[in-house]
Amino acid sequence: MNTPTPVLRLENIVKTFPGVRALDGVSLSVLPGEVHALMGENGAGKSTLMKVLGGIHQPDEGQVIVNERPVVMNGPLEAKALGIVFIHQELSLAEELSVAENVYLGELPTKGFGRVDWHELYQKTDAILAKLKVGFDAKTLVKDLSIANQQMVEIARALTVEAKVVIFDEPTASLTDAEKRVLFDVISDLQANDVGVVYISHRMEEIFKITDRISVLRDGQYQGSVATKDTDEEGVTQMMIGRKLDLTRKESNHELGKIALEVRNLSSGKAFNDVSFQVRSGEVVGFYGLVGAGRTEIAETLFGLRNKSSGEILLNGEVIDVKSPRDAIEKGISLVPEDRKGQGLVLGMNCRDNMTLPQVDDITAGPFVAEGAEIAIFDQYRDSLDIRTPGWKQDVGNLSGGNQQKIVIAKWLSMKPNVLIVDEPTRGIDVGSKSEIHKLLRKLASKGLAVIVISSEMPEVMHVSDRIVAMYSGRVTRTFECGEVTEDNLVQAISGVSKLA
Amino acid sequence: MKSINVKVLLKASPIWIFILFELVFFSVAGSYLSLSDKAFMDVDNMLLLLKQSAPIGIIAMGMAIIMINGNIDLSVGATFAIAAIVLLETMSSPMFEGLGDWVIPIAWGAALLVGTLLGAINGLIAWKTGVDAFIVTLGSMLGFRGLVFMFNGENPTSHLNWTLVDFAEAQFLGLHTATWFLLVVTAAIWYLMNRTVHGRNAYAIGNNREAAVNAGIRVGPHMMINFMLIGFLAALSAVVFYSESGSVNPNDGQLYELWIITAVVLGGTKLTGGSGSILSTLGGVIAIQLLRKGLGHIGADTSTVNLVIGSILILVLFLDRQINIKGREELKV
Amino acid sequence: MLRLSKDEAIRFLGKQGILAAFVIFMLVFALAEAKFISADNVLSVIRSSAIIGVMALGVTFVVVSGNLDLSIGSMMSFSTIVVLDLHDKIGPVLAILAMFSLTLLLGALIGFLVGYLRLNSLIVTLGMLSAIHGLTLTYSGGKNMDISDKSSWFSFFGQDSVMGIPVPILIFALLAALLGIILSKTPFGRKIYAVGGNGTAATFSGISRSKTVFFCYLISSFCVATAGLIQASRSLGSQNTVGQGLELEVLAAVILGGASLLGGAGTIAKTVVGVLMLGFIQNGLLLMGLQFYVQFVVTWVIIILAVWLDIAGKRGKLWSPLA
Amino acid sequence: MTIGITQNNVGVDSYQTTYDKAFTEAARANPNIDAVVLDAGGDVARQIAQVEDLIQQGVDAIIIWPTNGEAVVPAVRKAKRAGIPVIVTNSNISKAGFDFISAFSGPDNVTQGKRSAEIMCDKFKSMGIASTAKVVHITGQPGYTTATERAEGFENRLPEVCPQVTVIDTQPGDWNREKSQQVMEAFLVKYDNIDGVYAGDDNMGVGALNAAKAAGRDGIIFVGATNFAVGYEAMAAGEYWGSIYQSPVDDAKAALQTAVDVLNGKDVPFLNYFDTPKITQDNMSNYTKPVF
Ligand SMILES: Nc1ncnc2c1ncn2[C@@H]1O[C@H](COP(=O)(O)OP(=O)(O)OP(=O)(O)O)[C@@H](O)[C@H]1O
Ligand SMILES: Nc1ncnc2c1ncn2[C@@H]1O[C@H](COP(=O)(O)OP(=O)(O)OP(=O)(O)O)[C@@H](O)[C@H]1O
Ligand SMILES: [Mg+2]
Ligand SMILES: [Mg+2]
């Protein structure tokens, strides 16, 4: 079989940012009808490479070749005109506008004198939405959609033009399983139409399910490409991080302590209702459910960010009233929030200051912040979590998504909490670091911490938790003890099929 | 149940409810305090209200676009004054002496052109240098005012043309000329913002500039067009107003920017951009004008007027927030 | 030989753009008008800038916390009028105390409205601009206030010198040092940057956004009261509108210094440079005998050039990359 | 009878505030008069709107303190057409509007400027420096009629009476004591010899005086206009030479009286100037200290 001509080739792409060589001579080709995985650790340069492809960044050196013709793209529209569509890692939507306007953002259909052709716009959009099997229509405002549905709006953009290449940068980070299935259908449709798909994800099972070829970047350098069927998780991991990864979970052999946190019949408005559970010190409790199940709201209530409407919270057997995050912090509760950019980080602030923010009142020398102590904290967690940054002075906004997430985790670990709540802790984190974080969570538990892990990834909750609380629509449907959980009964519990517990 | 309905109503159109409240209040208070026999809600008085809202209102439409687009323009007051000077200077220029009243369209054209040009300067600087529009226009607020003084020394520029005054004072279907301009501008801007690609893109840019850039929307030219539009509208406002009054002081239009921004924000436009309604902006303008008129009607003195206007602004903002609170279980951020 | 590549030059500007601009302007003026850099003139410019400067220090706090304060001019008129009026009635010491208390009360009110009630600061302070003006007029009956005893020691704050340095300059310098340290070195300062940079993230980190904003306005009103004190002491009399319009001048100085209106960026040192720069520009143009309106235009150009240089340095490119 | 007044900008200085108070009091003292007192806040548009409102309310007479003497002409015409007599107060409207008003009542600002020039010239002559003296001029807020008229009167008259005195610099002090002090500081740095300062009002004059005192420059002759209480005190202290005596209370009363006379059908002179005499250290004992 002779290889078809690539729809797209990248040759020796170099891209530098002040202080960072993000891409260092990367070459890559995408064939028509293939799903090409791009993998690499956080900060390896995947998003940057794709932004070069999407016309958002211009390369310092090297060439982009489309259909064997070198091209220069000075903007996203030029890339789109060449048939390159880019679905961003971070949501890139105008929330106040309708779904249709977002799907066709930048190229609304017109009918003379710059007037928008609403009829055509809604018709075309609804046709695309129908393909995606989503439960909303073209006129819905994006701000009224859940995060997952917003992601689907992004994905809908891939279908607006006759694309030659579609790039998905971590599209599944906030999708539920049902939506993932739709996405994969879309991808195989594209494939059937000879479109080349570049697919970035840190989730191995997806990579092996849908991709044909895998290319790997490490520190901005191209490590090579392999056919997916010729390799396995271990092989890819080795290419990515240069060593093997031990993915087995060591059985916890530590004793569980007393009940550290107990929640009785807790409710808050419409977000969740009559929720009860316990977490012992030394235990990791996973919360699993669909987006909108109310898990985040429980965490926020425990952390003093929401008022409860009824029920009580007990810490070490005592009823407590958490009025504010300050309160929660003083009582030894930490929360790694779900939205790192919105809730976790001050993007314009440097890494060190972000990391020590919650304890800035406590690390002082006289009336002043003790900068030395801060740097020590930063160094410690940079090393233990392997955070890639040129130094503590770097603005967090310039770090790659995964490294930003690590800063948030470090920020809350350094608080030395008794109860640690992590909400989607590994969203957008590479396999290596992910397993590091899982190990870390286990280790923290073994030291006596009570840990709550909220996650929408089934493998993650199953891997890391001692017990799993399943939620559906603001209620706890079932609590699984260690050993009794299977994929099947978990799916049942979170989809409202099984009876309420 | 009933209280919910009230809330829904309030949410849908808070500014119009506020206007209604003002009308009722001043009518009632006026019947005790006013020296006039005429009712506050007299038809003629309401027609005057619309007319008097025009100078600020026309510019406010431009400000609404600018703010929806995510920018702000502090230089409109100075642009207003420059356009007025151009208008009046052109009319008194010996160059056009032979033309009789045909000088009027020329003067109007010249004033509108200059306004648009000044807007273009702001837009171009903001676009090409990347300096924030707040700073660019804070600077040009000063700079344009300097140009005003350069133009006419420190004296008023005057030219009374009675044909023009009669035109400006005319009433058609009961509405004054200025009111017609205000209504037409409102309609046009409403159409622009809700029906055209430029308008929708302006919303998108204000809402999420990065997303707009990523989607290939050319942010710069849109911004530039919007600044030209507000420049044009500031000049149009000057043209409408000074056609009637015929003389401009170099300090005219000072502080207009603040009142205009206030009106736009009262109308519910977010200062951060991306959302806002043209019709509510008209509401904001009318609400402020009504407040001034009403306070005059009931005989409030200067210090009271200042106190009340300031407090009302804050109160409206407070009520608006109370209405939009979802419940005590809301996320506390 | 010193040779800088364009890139290096731009990067240098990014760090010290405003300072570089400042030095250039000073040189130009000094060459054009010899008296410009005479000790007398320099001292007199700094002394006149002290009032704007002291207020700019407070506004820097407010701006870094992500808010605006347009009420300072109006509030400064209020302080000045109150302290002058009370001076003759209850004596200088009590007058000063009372004036500071009242001004801080106004600051606390704004802090409450913006910090705790989360109302938009632009509109709140615009409203307060008008309301406080009304308050001042009611208080004074609209009349000028004058101290009858012109030899009162009260003139110390505005007219005296200590070791050859005018007291207003000393107050400005001390306050700048104190507030500079608070903003850059203390936990409170760090929180202000966090709240201004991302209020939600700050809340999630256990920082009370409301409290932080509240104290920023309190500091701002303290600075306003100090400015009012210097003003009152300098002329021992005042009209009701003495501070009118200063809010924009102060804001211009703060922005010229490089504080971002979006919050989260700006320093006291840079604000001081911004203040001095505005002061020297105005003075330089005055000495060159330019008409005030030419000064307007030149100030416009300089503000935009300075801010442009500053951000061009930060992004490493002269022109904006915006399509 | 109901009389409506729209004033220029009440809060801005104590002359206008005192006028406002005096007017209200005078109106209240007269049981036949109901007064609707409005303030345009310096904004022409607002003033025109107020005239329209007064017409709409059907007042018997309108008194206007123009924010801009030209711009209000059409509004005044409207009042005339509605059969309402208009009296202009304090600063006149332009000639184009004379057909539409019943009378003007107020000071003559051009004459005031001229008188200030004469005060200054006389003093220089008595000091024997009339052939060499150098004067700096601090004007009011640019663009305000009163400011421009006084400046015009001064600049025209000075060369007539003292042809060898030179005005070496002019800058606006915006009716503001502090601003004026700053301007004067710069003048003092720039010019080694300044013999006289003419300020558009005493508020600014005293600001300039403060600057001179702080710089230790004695012997400068300060002349202002609108004698404020501070100016009067400085004169009494021998630091300030002269000014123009102008009472806002007289101003207000004259306006109201003119309106009443017009309504009562009395014959009033069209230009109803009230006198604003010179006041200097020499004759100040003839005048009481101004109340504002
Ligand atoms: N605008 C920028 N300015 C400075 N550095 C940047 C910028 N954008 C990216 N970088 C740096 O370039 C490198 C590559 O980042 P990139 O976002 O491409 O990583 P990634 O492979 O997509 O990682 P992740 O899996 O975490 O999303 C990182 O070191 C990042 O800090
Ligand atoms: N049906 C819905 N329609 C629109 N928005 C929704 C809906 N359900 C939830 N959301 C929004 O989606 C966001 C995420 O949902 P939420 O935090 O309630 O769920 P969760 O159980 O924490 O899920 P996850 O942590 O997986 O996101 C919230 O901001 C919520 O307001
Ligand atoms: Mg990425
Ligand atoms: Mg969640």
**Cα-to-Cα separation, first versus last residue of chain A:** 57 Å
Shape of chain A: globular
Helix content of chain B: over 70%
What is the spatial order of strands in the main beta sheet of chain B? Answer: 1-4
Oligomer: heterotetramer
What name is given to the CATH topology of chain B? Answer: ABC transporter involved in vitamin B12 uptake, BtuC
Uncertain regions spanning at least 5 consecutive residues of chain B = none
Which CATH class of chain B?
Answer: Mainly Alpha
Largest sheet of chain A: 6 strands, mixed
Secondary structure: number of strands of chain A: 22
Instruction: Tell me the β content of chain B.
Output: under 5%
Mean pLDDT of chain B: 87
Helix content of chain A: 25-40%
The number of E-state strands of chain B comes to 4
Alpha-carbon distance between the two ends of chain B: 29 Å
Q: Give Rg of chain B in angstroms.
A: 21 Å
Question: Can you describe this structure?
Answer:
The complex is a heterotetramer of chains A (501), B (333), C (323) and D (292). Chain A is an alpha/beta fold and 501 residues long. In chain A, 32% of the residues lie in helices and 26% in strands. Chain A has 17 helices and 22 strands. The model of chain A has no long low-confidence stretch (mean pLDDT 87). Chain C is 74% helix and 2% strand. Chain C has a two-stranded antiparallel ribbon. In chain C, strands 2-3 form a two-stranded antiparallel sheet. In chain C, helix 3 (72-90) packs parallel to helix 5 (121-140), helix 7 (167-185) crosses helix 8 (187-197) and helix 11 crosses helix 12. The longest helix of chain C has 27 residues, at 6-32. Chain C is globular, with a radius of gyration of 20 Å. Chain C starts with 5 loop residues before the first helix and ends in an 8-residue tail after the last helix. Chain D has 292 residues and is α/β, with parallel strands linked by helices. Helix content of chain D is 43%, strand content 18%. Chain D has 9 helices and 12 strands. In chain D, the strands form 3 sheets. A 6-stranded parallel β-sheet of chain D has the order 2-1-3-4-5-11, with helices on both faces. Chain D has a 4-stranded parallel β-sheet with strand order 7-6-8-9, with helices on both faces. In chain D, helix 4 packs parallel to helix 5 (145-161) and helix 6 (177-190) crosses helix 7. The radius of gyration of chain D is 20 Å and the shape is elongated. The model of chain D has no long low-confidence stretch (mean pLDDT 91). Classes of the chains: A alpha/beta (501), B mainly alpha (333), C mainly alpha (323), D alpha/beta (292). Chains in contact: A-B, A-C, B-C, B-D, C-D. The interface between B and D is large, with 45 and 47 residues.
